[in-house]
Design a protein that fits this description.
mainly alpha, 75% helix, globular
Length: 129
Amino acid sequence: MLTPAFPTLSNLLIGYSFSILLGGVSIEWVMRAIRNRSEVLKQEKVIPKRDMYLVRLLGLLERILYTTCVVFGQPAGIAAWLAIKVLTRWAGEENRWANISEANIYLIGNLLTVAFGAGGGLLSVLLPK
């Protein structure tokens, strides 16, 4: 199997910028809009504001991981991390997903994080050298 040449530094900067910066701003905007429109989530404080920095930090680290996995041609790393996330959710509280809105927002956030992370990696790899 042929391995493509490693991306140039400028391609890596573009890809990681897409993943980290554009992804971070876009995901924050979308998630805030969803939370503000959800009447159920307005009444229930799903994640206290004091803990939101942890959610943002995890999203940032995930986008970096996903971008790196794509750049190095290791999509199994993305699958492994997603499996760990699923296992930790199942191992948590029994009624963790009693609120379907909360579960859907979690899935939307994960989908956007994977999309921006993998997209950044693809940009790094596929841009002309």
